[in-house]
Amino acid sequence: MKMTEPNDRMQGHLHRFRFKFLDKEDRYEITCKSPCSVLQALETSSKFCVLKEKTVKQKMETRQQEKTMQRQDLVIQTMKGKKPIATHFPCHLIKNGQILTISTVFNDSEEATTETTQIYKENKQYVIFYIESEGGKNTKTKQLLKNKKLKPFSPLCIYAICGETVETALTRDGRFHDNVFIQTFTLVESESDPPRCVEMNVLVDCLDKQTFKMILEERNATQAPTAPPQAGSNLQKEDETNSIQLPMSNTSTETSAAGEPPKKQKYPVTVTDSAEILKILRHQFADLVKQMKKRYKKKKYSGVLSHLSGEFGKSTEGFSEVYTVKKLMELSDSVCMIDVKGVKQGTGFLLFDHYILTNAHLFKKDGIFYVNEYGHISAKVTATFNKENPSESNLKEIDVKPEIIDFQWGFDAYNRHVDFAVLELQDVDTSTGLLCRSSPDPKTGGVCLIGHPGGGVKRTDPTTIIERERRGEAFQRETGKNDRMDMLINTSIEENKVNYDMLMKPDSTEVTYDTCLFHGASGSPVFDESCQVIAMHTGGFPYKDEGVKSVIEYAIPLFTILENFLIEMMNRNNVEILTKFTREALTGLHSRDFIYNFIRHLVTEWKPSFSAALTAVWETVKENENHLRMKENLRTWIISKKEVLEKIQIAGNEALKEFMLENILVKLSQTDDDDEPMDE
């Protein structure tokens, strides 16, 4: 279940703009209260949802080849200049009072023209530039746009964040064909004389308000391809005399007859085309230094190095902003200390209603879980809120019911690590649940943990995400200092080998970082720089050296936990919890989309036993003011999924068919003819 487009609920963000449909004169006002995408802002208007649905339906009815059922792309243009923007264009870049014109075009390709999750922050510096839909030199036979029907809407408006490259901005935009990134395309400024050329690896900082055309240049010895060569390509088969030999360690783990591991052996490894690569890098280095001197306003290369050294640790600077600190302190009211009497202490947080989320391993001691097969906890458990003052005043200790709501430990159906427990409080706490603040993890950037390490007062720790590709480096940095340290670290890794192998997998989903919160912090919420909960702190690789230290720590993404929790509630037909979860989730942007994907999962994997769960979730959705948007998205999805319409016809699925018809997600004639478009 993947969410789309998060929303940073920052205060002080308030502006208005208007929209109209291309064939209509009526104009409607949108009031935007928080940073988000243009489409998200538009979808707060029920009038937009209704008019969009009617426009799409009319186009489908007048199209001669209805049976192809192609998708339609939304085209959003500004009245001034009529340059179309992407649907994920940051809303705060639209001027107050600006009018947007909405239309749709058919997308005859199989590719979507929207991209992945974006984080909208008003404190970032943005640039806007334009690219003609028709290319220049050597592009006549090349497809530049995924959807060719966007060509008349030239030039396309592109937004970018200062400090990123042209390629990054165009990739995020989502409307450009893969050809643009695979071949050596270059941007040429339309009105410059002599022509000003901008390559894909150039930073966007100086491109604001400029218009470009794409040209295709022939690659020569001084140009590196945009995409890396694939295994077995001609580049690898060329003359291998231009190569450098590098030593590589033998990683064999076989032992000798004496039982001792063999010493590491080294043998040469050939790096193909290394002379060519070295030539390219040397050619690009001078331009890079020149560009960085200009960007950082330094006269000497040594000044650039000093500036970059000063950048260390700035990925957590977002947590020094007063607004962010205040918001985190407010959200920290939902964090509590979990005490499993006689077993372990840890951290948890209020997820929704009066349900607490924490780690399952808090209930494990000496290899024994204190939760039986029927979900009964055999130890007393308490949740203590407001443990912030060393004097322990204003503590609020609440007993946890002995019947556990959900308990999962191990690996799920997708081989992802799970280690969580959902507990029910005896009394309802007054804190706000964090479900509505849930968000996909950003993979990079700053994060902040809030927890109760050592069972003490509540603490925070801002830190930085260690990307998956750099985890090996994090372990290597700690080793090699002295033999004693190496032994301690290697022992910790061996004792946690399953977790180590899990983090080193190329498809690992865990979030990793370096934190000073150790024992007792398990179950802590992990916040990103937008104060969204992205994960739950779970463990690390501790060792003792003048106190407890750890090599690296990790958290399980919150969406992995929520997905497994919902599926378990679905399998149990726990209508009460599904209803409460859905009602709370609909108040958050990402969690709302999570519910949408959960409904799709219920329909796709339909079993008659899902009927009660589907009905409970949908009835709760209908209570929400945004239900029209979700209904429209579901109908559009059903059109594109022939197997869903076929599923309705299968004997035993009458409940699914009745649900679809009752909620006008399909019409009666369509259950017999799935090529016919839907209407009200």
From TrEMBL:
It comes from the Eukaryota. Residues 242-256 have a biased composition (Polar residues). It comes from Salvelinus namaycush (Lake trout). InterPro entries: Peptidase_S1_PA (IPR009003). GO terms for cellular component: chromatin; nucleus. One of its GO terms (biological process) is DNA replication. This is Serine protease FAM111A-like isoform X2. Residues 221-231 have a biased composition (Low complexity). PANTHER family: PROTEIN FAM111A-LIKE, SI:CH1073-475A24.1. Residues 219-266 are annotated as: Disordered.
